[in-house]
Amino acid sequence: MKLLLKGGRIIDPAQNVDLVGDVLVQDGRIAKVGGQIDPGDAEVLEARGLVVAPGLIDLHTHLREPGLEAKEDIGSGTRAAAAGGFTTICCMPNTRPVIDNAVLVAGVTQRAGLEGAVNVRVIGALTKGQEGKELAEIGDMIAAGAVALSDDGHFVESARIFRTGLEYAGMFDGVVVSHAEDESLAGDGYMHEGAVSAALGLRGRPAVSEDIAVARDVMLAEYTGALLHIAHVSTLGAVEIIRQAKRRGVRVTAEVTPHHLTLTDEAVLGFDPAAKVHPPLRSGEHVEALLAGLKDGTLDVIATDHAPHAFEEKDVEFRYAPSGFAGLETALGVVLTELYHTGKFTLPELIDRMAAAPARVFGLEGGTLKPGAPADITLFDPNQEWRVDSSLFYTRGKCTPFAGKSLKGKAVATIVGGRVVMKNGEVRA
Ligand SMILES: [Zn+2]
Fold it and tell me: Which of 16, 149, 243, 336 is deepest in the core (most CB within 10 A)?
């Protein structure tokens, strides 16, 4: 089976490629890139005016399966991914039961192979039941295909357990992903601690709770020499700690979400439960630091932290609403609107942060259009204008702080292993 993408702007940061031309896909792999390629018997997909990029990869998706299918399942979550232009997503283990053993890693991987519209890689729990007390079967899970280990949703309170987890994962070259918020400082807070929380009379989650947690984890990574990845960085202090650590050669990488890059705690004014998330939306100085960190490579990756909830769970008073919201279907549009069209980032920089860098950080195949690589490709129109209407989302999580926003830039086609799984917003898988 052959597919020819004709006349698009091909951007492949992993190879420093940015040119107008054709891409030929054959037998699920990239066969040829650049210039004018004779279609022969290939199916032709017109890409004029579109960007042809390596398929977007999300390192932080909550698929909610097993056990929480009212919020999302593999079918709905991967279709949301395809609609948003993602070809690979890595799913978090805070499910019911928690994905903390090899059988569950293998089971979710297998189900995703059958039901999934895009590639799914599973992140196993670092500790049993994500309770932070006893290490999970790290080696067995990695052998079963786990791509990283994380107690995401919780900070691993015990430094001793976290150290042992880093050491154990390190023996298999496994990456440990940290949800870094010191719960003794942040645990009973609802939003960023600052002027807005004071005005609203809501208890805050101070930035220092994240700074402390990131500092501890970075020091343990430095001490053990293991691979550490910091999830959803949201503070100025954390950016600076990671920047210094990288200079010293610590093996730490980090991600930042589209919402932390583009929204402030003022989104909570009016008590909109859609704006409730952990770590919380911060004040402007933090947003500026995140943008600078993403620019200079301190923050390697943009990840969605797609965290869908059933509408009736989220549609309650702010204090009682669960934290998190859907992100897969807005990520690219938000990033292009707020980071590209404002002149802050170039397209190659953003494609690096959303495709090449995620592949590098988790050691995944893909993230490039090099001949021989899997034919995971995202075509997007950087200039298409659209309005966020969550009733049209494929995800079950209809809640988003971007609801009603006008965005510029949208995925037009998503190709996974040479198969077109989404075209013009319609998912076919
Ligand atoms: Zn988290």
Answer: 149
From 151, 211, 265, 305, active-site residue: 305
Q: Is the pLDDT of residue 429 over 80?
A: no
In the three-class reduction of DSSP (H, G, I as helix; E, B as strand; rest coil), residue 242 is classed as helix
Q: How far is Cα 124 from Cα 218, in angstroms, rounded to an integer? A: 20
Please answer whether residues 14 and 2 qualify as being in contact, where contact means their C-beta atoms are separated by less than 8 angstroms.
Answer: no
Distance CA(356)–CA(114), nearest Å, equals: 26
Centre of ligand 1 from the C-alpha of residue 372, in Å:
34
Residues 344 and 254 in one domain: yes
| CA 279–ligand 1 middle distance (angstroms) | 7
Ligand 1 centroid, distance to 347 Cα (angstroms)? 27
The CATH number of the domain holding residue 38 is 2.30.40.10
Provide the CA 282 distance to its chain's centre, in angstroms: 19
217 classed as catalytic = no
Q: How many domains does the chain have?
A: 2
Specify whether 295 is located in the same domain as 329. Answer: yes
95 and 159 fall within a common domain? yes
What tens digit of pLDDT does each residue of 17-56 get? 999 999 999 999 999 998 999 999 999 999 999 999 999 9
CA of 66 to the centre of ligand 1 (A): 18
- Name the pTM for this structure: 0.98
Instruction: Note the pLDDT tens digit of each residue in 341-378.
Output: 999 999 999 999 999 999 999 999 999 999 999 999 99
Task: Enumerate residues 6+ apart whose C-beta is below 8 A from 348.
Answer: 11, 13, 18
